[in-house]
Amino acid sequence: MTANLRRAAVLTTIAALALTACGTETAEPDGTADTPRATSPIDFNIPAGERYHRTATFPVYLNRPNAAPADEETVAEISTVTPDGNTLIYTDAAAKRIGFLDIRDPAKPLANGTLPLTELGDADDQPTSVAAVGDVVLVVVDTTGGDFPKPSGRLDVVNVRDRTRVQSIDLGGQPDSIAISRDGGFAAIAMENQRDEEFTPPGKEEGDLPQPPTGFVQLLDLEGAPNTWKPRRVDFDVEAARAAGLDTPEDLEPEYVSINSRGQVAVTLQENNGVAIIDGRSGAVEKIFSAGSVAVSGIDVAEDGAIDQTGSIPETPREPDAIGWVDDDHLATANEGDWKGGTRGWTIFDTNGQVVWDAGNSVEQLAVRTGLHIESRAESKGPEPEGLAITTIGGKPTALIASERSNFVAVYDVSDPAAPVFRQILPTTPGPEGVLPIPARNLLVISSEADDAEARVRASVSVYGYGEPFAAQGGMPPFPSIVSGDVDGAPISWGALGALSADPGDENRLFTATDNAYGPARILGIDLTKTPALIDTALPITEDGKPVTLDVEGVSARPGAGWVLAVEGEEGPGNELVFVAADGAIENRVTLPDDVAAGLGGQGLEGVAVDGDNVWVALQREVKTDRTGVVRLGKFTPADDKWEWFGYQLEKTDVDGDWVGLSEIQVHDGSLLVLERDKLNGPDAKVKAIYRVQIPAGGEAFEPDNTPVVLPKTLARNLLPDLQATRGFVQEKVEGFAIAGNGRLYVVTDNDGVEDANGETVFLDLGPAGDALG
């Protein structure tokens, strides 16, 4: 990958941090450790009958209208399902439409078309939420069009079968979420009348409250024909909100609603840091309470390129977004935060507003432990829990918490509201917002709101099935396939793994390294006997006694002592082979020959393999003076300080904007094994493969155009089926592989530090290399 200047700036200013946050473990190439290895406090390997299995990931751009270009932004935010559980309906505010998916087969969702809001109203209308009831779907529409002082919206009642509008109801303001009572008798709609983040109220800061008009709640009785339905407005008492300690009570902004079995409506007032409870039948406001504040420690609070888990935030407003009833006496909130707060976790309250349980730093630790920490949000709100749903699985009440920024949903058993038990983590595509359990079918649908067509990381609907019947349909390997253990109560930080190497001293261990998405540089040790694979050691790389940041793209253990690292530079001259001792100290740096370095851009050294007295390297892209489509493999002999170069012919995809390059090199059974990949992901991915190249008997040779002579190659393994088998969004950057001492082939993907990627790391055990490689 191309190194990032901002991240690479992390050097000696965080030297002390590296040694503290990474722990004190050291890993020797012979497999021993100077201190006990880290252990995982969480058992991720739960029985198939007691967990969710990912059955499908459907990028919603595949459900676009025929005339819409593939690179048009299209998202899935909030979703609902018809009573029969077969048709999923989702909002797409970016494209101003709602979409329909056929999910009768949860392993194969089918595009079922869209309904543009231009057919129901104006081209600027945006859907904010949907809820299916009977044979209709209630579509909540924001018609404000940016005129914040004059908020407006409506509710369209649409027949699901023919997608015609049956009724349209003026809501009298700008709406957000909708919920249907459990008996189907009424709906509740949060009328946010949201603030303008670029407006400055008199005497306030930009984006502050108050910005009238205040918000309210609409209740809609659903009895009789839709053309008889009329809303009932519920306003909040300003003085009651002030007495409860809410922020700016004169301008309340309802965000999210949920209804319990007694017909009570819970409403979050996110910007006001409050919660209200309304009797849905009478419309009486029964309770308003503050969500309170909490201090959180053991988190990363600085965007500095390093995961420093020694930070903390002082007493901070929770500012909850989504809310759900755990039971009729307890509420759970996802504390995303907005303009003043956000505490990186979730909380359970009783109906009097007393905190029964709070997640503290556990959600962020979960992100770090599974490689999903997003460093660019460290100074803001970290993983930002935003979505939430409560369901019952296996007979137990279960909370589902969606992390907007780290792209996962965490699953908790909340049988005891005072002591939730973590059960599982589910990966998603970027920006999970809609969390929709479908209990009648034991399904869970997660819809994501972030879409980056340029990076080809697309908004999707992820489908999960709970229990043994879905085990055979579920993705393999299950997520997470690799995690880290804890040191002194904090997980070893990791992510952006782009290199693997066998441990010469232990057949059941590998070495890996993060690239410069997270600094300083470290060599991590992996225990392959654990399920999932366990990162249990972290050794900082040092120079003159200080940790350094390196864009490590390849690592190879030297038999007896130390490692060789392939380090990529911002430009060609920055590419180096870095020789490292067993204690992590840099012994030597070897640059590429001047003529080769001068011909490289941002993609240089990518793989390295020690072979006796020689070191083999793979360059990711072509040297500019060489023929297009031919990349170089190099052999370096340290004893002679000598480089030799050989050609490798790249595959082609004929996709605009794509390029193909190399990601890894290994020496095995007298041959070179080379990992080749394109820049494509998801359903577009075409080239993810390991090829075999015979080690040349003679020295280097060049064609008349000075391009190295191309070595013959044969396909050893097409990795696309392996990546597709996860049932997730196929990862672009399959970047590392190795054959461990146990003879098995392992492959890992680089999650780019959760930037321009969904963040999921796939660690594959492909079985005995003799069987896995053709």
Automatic annotation (TrEMBL):
<dbReference type="InterPro" id="IPR027372">
    <property type="entry name" value="Phytase-like_dom"/>
</dbReference>
<protein>
    <submittedName>
        <fullName>Esterase-like activity of phytase family protein</fullName>
    </submittedName>
</protein>
<dbReference type="InterPro" id="IPR011044">
    <property type="entry name" value="Quino_amine_DH_bsu"/>
</dbReference>
<feature type="signal peptide">
    <location>
        <begin position="1"/>
        <end position="27"/>
    </location>
</feature>
<dbReference type="InterPro" id="IPR015943">
    <property type="entry name" value="WD40/YVTN_repeat-like_dom_sf"/>
</dbReference>
<dbReference type="Pfam" id="PF13449">
    <property type="entry name" value="Phytase-like"/>
</dbReference>
<feature type="domain" description="Phytase-like">
    <location>
        <begin position="493"/>
        <end position="752"/>
    </location>
</feature>
<dbReference type="InterPro" id="IPR052956">
    <property type="entry name" value="Mesenchyme-surface_protein"/>
</dbReference>
<keyword id="KW-0732">Signal</keyword>
